[in-house]
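Standup, Tuesday
Yesterday: got the pipeline producing structure tokens again.
Today: sanity-check two examples.
Blockers: none.

Example 1:
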Amino acid sequence: MTTEQRPLESFSLRRAFSALLKRELKGVIRSPGQAMNPLAFFLMVAALFPLGISPESHMLSLIAGGVIWVGALLSVLLSLDRLFKSDQRDGSLEQLLLSPHSLPVLVLAKVLAHWLTTGFLLTLVAPLLGIMLFLPSEALWALVLSLLLGTPLLSLAGAISAALTVRIQQGGLLITLISLPLYIPVLIFGTGSIQAAADGMPYSGHLLWLATFLVLGLCLVPLAVAGALRLAGD
């Protein structure tokens, strides 16, 4: 390969990444329910907890971080089935597999689009829910930062289960069973950072662990998902 060909291939890969990302985002704009359903579920979970447990501010402030994180986790799970299933139905998945571009990079574009339309939106709404649930003000930054680091991990880990079940017609339960063990460390460190901040303790360690998991996920998960999609394609 000549030195002139390498920049051209790199430019072509960036164009393919951008084109796929734009395609995914336009699809969500045309069908806004794809993004609104997880967001509405997230809001309902946070709104129903005070009714089912206690409306007292002291009680709610103790569980606010856990409620918001569990709601975010379940909302992301709700949206995973559409990550690759629609591509499998309309034949786009075969086009991705036959593409001359790097499949892990294309997978990363789809995961990024999924996060922008689920986890990122949940993160934007989370501070309002924190205030509604009487989360201490010093813990709001921990809430936002933990979700910014943790929700991409939820999309990455969920992409593995979505790829493994892409050929299964009713794979929602199987996606949940595969994803939940991968989500447990994210949930532990995400809620731990909020609790530490609420108690006036340093919470940077929890965030560093989430950042470490995120870097590892960005490096390894696209390769694993690409391998799972190739197996499904065969």
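Example 2:
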Amino acid sequence: MRSGMVAVLGRPNVGKSSLVNALVGRKVSIVSRRPQTTRHRIQGVYNADDLQIVFIDTPGLHEHEHRTLNEFLNRAASSAIEGVDAVLHVVESGAWRADDDLALARAARAGVPVIAALNKVDRRAQKQELLPEIAKLNERHAYAAIVPVSATHGDNLEGLADALAAYMPEGPMLFPPGQIQGHDLAFTVAECVREKLTRMLHEELPYALSVGVEALEDKPGLLRAHAVIWVEREPQKKIVVGAGGSTIKRVGTAARRDLEAQLDKKVFLQTYVRVRPNWSDDPAALRALGYDDG
């Protein structure tokens, strides 16, 4: 039996969360087209017959944002490499940017093997086009392996798991067999609501939202949850609520259906919107809302 921990690093919007979800086989990390959707270190567990890999999905590293929230996200991503057995550096095929250099520098400092996942290769019409790109990656860093993948299409995920398995130490499972998430149910509910908000309001409120769960009752066949959506200003609250409560109703319905599919049980979800001025620039507020500053 081999088991170990892998930190997943990369710049915003390269597909880290989508790749972790695809490897695990179920959604453990929310996704959207908006960069920096992931705000927490999230554990997803890959299980095979003689292998368990615990993936730590991290916030995208971003060099040019200076709000306190972004400082928290960068520190959370950086501290995730402590104590891992390998780092998975996710890069986007054909799109190396300055923030990729930042992510690579953090990965290299971990002192463990770094495997590159060259993501979104399904966009390449000819696979031969990948060869010069792989050669360029080899020039950037002495990667333990470079594996072309497509998180969206599920291409070569087994090859990536095999490449990581070579660096997992022998030892017992870190999580019970069959467990695929390393976070609790309240976190799952809050993140599901935030995902729907991010997708529906990404133009109006890209980063001014956070979600917490105030009450949770989990019974066989039924989950009851009260989720609070935090914004920074009263006009933002009006946007989230929508005309006659239309937007918050759509968010709640979409989140409830998603949770029911994930949990295979009936879900009763109530959502509220509250204002906490400038929470994204207030360290105390960020900690109260569950953000980890490493």
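Quick observation on example 2: The chain has two domains: 2-165, 185-288. The mean pLDDT is 83.
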